[in-house]
Amino acid sequence: MDNTIITYSTLFDMVESDAKDHKEKEFATLFLNAMNDWPTYNQKEIADFIKELKDYFGTPLTIEKITTKEFDGQNAWQIEAGSSIADLIDISTKFCNQSDFDKIVESFLNYYSSIKKSNNGQEKIINQDFCEFLVYEICKVFEYSNNDQIKGFWCDGILLNQPDSSYSQKFVNDNRQITLKAFIGKDGQTEYELTLKFGDQALSKYARNLDIKECVPNPDKQNWFNIDTKRNKIEIQLD
After folding, report:
1. Average pLDDT in the chain
2. Three-class SS of residue 9?
3. Cys staple from 66: which of 82, 84, 165, 182, with CB 3.0 to 4.6 Å?
């Protein structure tokens, strides 16, 4: 299996699961921040982002080229993303004696690709892509709900907040559920404990490392979703 990291979501998952503090993680985090701020909608490929970055700021990509771009009333997100890239180059230059943007990116991608390889290259099923999908489905549930307590609620994000072992196939098979953190409320910022319960279909797919998105019921059905606004807890029952 190819262990090369080519997408935002794969790199994000690798960085999120990295418990150590080190420069490669710092560089990868700044890069992810920049990619997240870049205004191209739903951009997933790292190579596509780098191409657009260079097309906008110039090649080779340097701090000088980034800082000469001025705000024109419409390029706020490009400037924000460029700021993160400039910080990345600046820190690498000072602490690693490396100012070449391409070599900095190559270094942290190789680092996390090697970790991915040591983990047998197995992609997580519960990853950023699935969490973003679940966010969207939860927002639709709030929209369809007749519960006055959650009128105007929305979900701003879902995070994996447990050790990797708590999302393993063995753990799910033994416990039939996992725990996540969700940000919910009228401002989308209140922390909720989200329990994702696995039905037979989801359990079978998870055991075979298959996508479980289709196991999330339709949002207009209310019996799969339970929320306790006093205890800040949510339970979601997969098929």
Report:
1. 87
2. helix
3. 82
Give residue-wise pLDDT tens across range 39-48. Answer: 998 889 999 9
Report H helices in the chain.
8-16, 23-37, 46-57, 63-67, 76-96, 101-118, 128-144, 169-175, 200-207
Residue closest to 171 by CA, chosen among 196, 134, 137? 196
How buried is 234 (Cβ within 10 angstroms: 0-12 exposed, 13-18 middle, 19+ buried)? Answer: buried
| Distance from C-alpha of 101 to C-alpha of 89, rounded to nearest angstrom | 6
**pTM of this structure:** 0.52
CA 231 to each of CA 195, 228, 235: distance values in angstroms, whole numbers, following the listed order: 13, 6, 12
Give the C-alpha distances (Å, rounded to integers) separating 176 from 81, 104, 123: 40, 41, 20
Tokens at residue 71, please?
């705000």
Task: Give residue 121's pLDDT.
Answer: 43
Say if residue 116's pLDDT is above 70. Answer: no
Place of tokens 């037979």: 200
